[in-house]
Design brief:
Length: 288
DNA sequence: AACTATTCCAACCGCAACAAA
DNA sequence: ATTTGTTGCGGTTGGAATAGT
């Protein structure tokens, strides 16, 4: 496909990006936008393929990226969306402002590993609520949503952004059981093996109905929890109405929590913001 | 302190879909 | 209609960081 003019094979650099390369790419996008990636390396003076440049921008340099650990709300939403969408990381990430598909995917993979460690025999059985029969689950959950008159999440719709953002800490804080309580984390110090909720916000009490999912419960020290959890899952979904989270005023919270890798470097943010609308996110999470 | 194992994340790869020629 | 080039996505890997012994 990608033949080089003149047949000259230019050795492209691979591996981690240096700060200088990042700067070149940032400068290029600030100047020209992120239109044609194949031409970016040449114009920007980078010895990378366009694909690599694009990935670097999307996964790391975008000014709207929210760095750091996933919040409890994000974690919960990923779990829920994955139960609906399966491994559609880009679609899941689209519901998480400031997060990339790669980030979500990595989170999920480590999450799965934790689940496996939690299960006694290391089998996948405890994951049945998520990975098995996804097609059937998908249809079933959509139907459930429809029956409840809820808003079926559409990946591209702006309302889903709002709905996601509407999962506000305040709105969800009333759920009694926390992930930690459900998941082998009865010891506050979390010194035991097994599931840890997100590494940095374990003290959060912000939880949602779908937390009481089977596989999560399977981590509980109580051996009966796994079986009960499967039932919980369906029940929790019955409780869920997307419309409950739409236009809930949750957006500002995410806005405030948003972090920018460039910190207060408004110049960098200004330079790139407004030139892209990656993943349908027209919001610059950095500018604040 | 040194070594080993594990975890996490950034980046790469291959493929499919789409657009332009 | 076909070919060629580009973009986007999901799976996988490599290696740095961290934890454990």
């Amino acid at each position: 496909m990608s033949k080089r003019p003149g047949g000259m094979k230019k050795r492209l650099k691979r591996g981690l990006w240096s700060p200088e390369e990042d700067e070149k790419l940032m400068n290029h996008i600030a100047k020209y936008g992120n239109g044609c990636w194949s031409s970016v390396p040449k114009i920007a003076g980078l010895e990378r393929c366009g694909k690599s440049c694009r990935l670097r921008w999307i996964n790391y340099l975008r000014p709207d990226l929210k760095r750091g650990a996933f919040s409890q709300e994000e974690e919960d939403l990923i779990i829920h969306l994955h139960s609906i969408l399966g491994n559609k990381w880009s679609q899941i990430a689209a519901q998480l402002p400031g997060r990339t598909d790669n980030e979500v995917k990595n989170f999920w993979n480590s999450f799965i590993k934790k689940k496996l460690r939690c299960s006694d025999d290391g089998s996948l059985s405890s994951l049945s609520g998520y990975n098995n029969n996804q097609t059937a689950d998908f249809a079933g959950y959509l139907d459930a949503d429809a029956l409840h008159g809820g808003v079926i999440p559409s990946v591209s719709s702006s309302s889903t952004l709002n709905s996601m953002a509407g999962v506000s800490p305040g709105g969800a804080a009333n759920t009694n059981a926390t992930t930690d309580e459900l998941c082998c984390n009865n010891n506050p110090s979390n010194s035991g093996s097994g599931f840890e909720s997100s590494t940095t916000q374990s003290s959060s009490n912000h939880h949602l109905p779908w937390l009481e999912l089977g596989s999560i419960s399977s981590c509980a020290e109580d051996g009966n929890a796994a079986g009960a959890g499967a039932d919980h899952y369906g029940a929790a979904l019955d409780e869920l109405k997307w419309s409950d989270y739409v236009f809930d005023g949750g957006y500002p919270q995410y806005h405030q929590q948003g972090q920018c890798i460039y910190g207060d470097s408004k110049a960098a943010a200004d330079a790139a913001a407004g030139q892209f609308d990656a993943h349908g996110l027209g919001i610059n999470w950095c500018l604040n």
